[in-house]
Amino acid sequence: MPATSTASDFFQLFVPDNSIQNMVVQTNMYAKKFQERFGPDEGWRPVAAQEIKAFLGFVISTSVHRCESVLSIWSSGFFSNRSMALKMSQTRFEKILKYFHIVAFRPSQGSNQGLYKIQPFLDSLQQSFSCTFRPSQTQVLHEPLIDEDPVFITTCTERELRKRKKRKFSLWVRQCTSTGFICQISVHLKEGQGTDGLAALKNKPQLHSLVAKQLCQNISGKNSIIFTGPSITSLSLFSEFSKQDIYCCGLLSTRKSDCTGLPQSMLVCGSTPAQRGQSHVMMKGSMSLISWYNKGHFRFLTNSYSPTKQGMIIKRKSGEITCPLAVEAFAAHLSYICKYDDKYSKYFIFHKPNKTWQQVFWLSISIAINNAYILYKMSDAYTVKRYSRAQFGERLVRELLDLDDCSPTQ
């Protein structure tokens, strides 16, 4: 990307003009279908591409200003913004919000029926993530923080909690541990009769294994190293991945993990008290099962790090603690992802629609913006003007709304 690239140039790597145009066509089709069924809407006129861009800009602004209601822009309160409000009337915005669609009509057939209204956009997003960025060798599979999750809920007031509805989908990602770039996303409905629903696999150990396989289907043969949490880590999955030249390092839990095929002697705590930093290893072929003690027993399964090589974990209060290299690598890469969540998850779009497909859409837009910012920081454009994540979001909103003074050099 050239040094003159703007925030919207990076955003359009993932949400290009043809995606915007599809939103225009589908929104107008849905409005027509709706009015044919329920009667004409005198205040409606077909939407245009620039209006959809502005519509996206209005909703994205809630991530920058941390405002739950987009309509606050047109109010006289703290979150009001006259320059933005002049770009579109509140009435027009509400009309577009009412009819906004990615897919207006239900397909006659398809395997992902529950997400049919968002699936084409998700497919396009996945493709753009793969085409625009080549991740580092080390990546992690996990569920990113969203504002309905427990960490966020602890900061909510009782009134806000009563307003929130339980999320009906789960989101898993494959994320580069060197940059935080989210390489692939996998969305599953928690309820539903279709194959995209989790009901059929709710109580079965292959659920998270299936998610992991979906997230890693594009990295076969690339010698990637995948870090996984206890719910994904299993001997059968790691063995299957190793046949595809995908190597793994995962934390094990006797409660959350599928421990089939692992020696029970390594999964139970011995009667002799262990010393801090002490570890035991059992190997079979290239697979190692490590039991490491640090105020408790931690077990790791890996085929990507030699169990004989030693590493070090540095604690602020405890100082240096010896550990196998796999343990050091796991802690380092997972801590980076925690920092990513702390930095960027607070910039997720605050607008909370009732429909599940709309929640998934705005969440995926938030991820696309974070990815756009990561690419911006690695480009020559960052040397021209060093925008923070919040400033980048503000510039993107102004450019989508076609407000004046959008040059990155000013």
The count of β-strands is 10
Query: What is the CA-based Rg, rounded?
Result: 24 Å
Spatial sequence of strands, sheet with the most strands: 3-2-1-4-5-8-7-6
Count structural domains: 2
Distance between the termini: 19 Å
Total of DSSP H or I helical runs spanning 4+ residues? 14
Helix content: 25-40%
Report on this structure.
This protein is of the alpha+beta class. The protein folds into 2 domains: 7-110 and 355-401, no CATH class; 118-342, Transposase Inhibitor Protein From Tn5, Chain A, domain 1 (Alpha-Beta Complex), CATH 3.90.350. 39% of the residues lie in helices and 16% in strands. It has helices at 7-11, 17-38, 49-65, 82-85, 90-99, 119-132, 150-153, 158-163, 206-215, 235-242, 325-344, 356-377, 381-384, 389-400, and strands spanning 138-142, 169-176, 182-189, 224-228, 246-252, 279-284, 287-293, 297-302, 310-315, 319-324. The strands form 2 sheets. An 8-stranded mixed beta sheet has the order 3-2-1-4-5-8-7-6, sandwiched between helices. It has a two-stranded antiparallel sheet with strand order 9-10. Strand 2 (169-176) and strand 3 form a beta hairpin. Helix 6 runs parallel beside helix 12 (356-377). The longest helix is centred in the first third of the chain and has 22 residues, at 17-38. It is elongated, with a radius of gyration of 24 Å. It starts with 6 loop residues before the first helix and ends in a 10-residue tail after the last helix. The model is unreliable at 149-155 and 193-203 (pLDDT under 50).
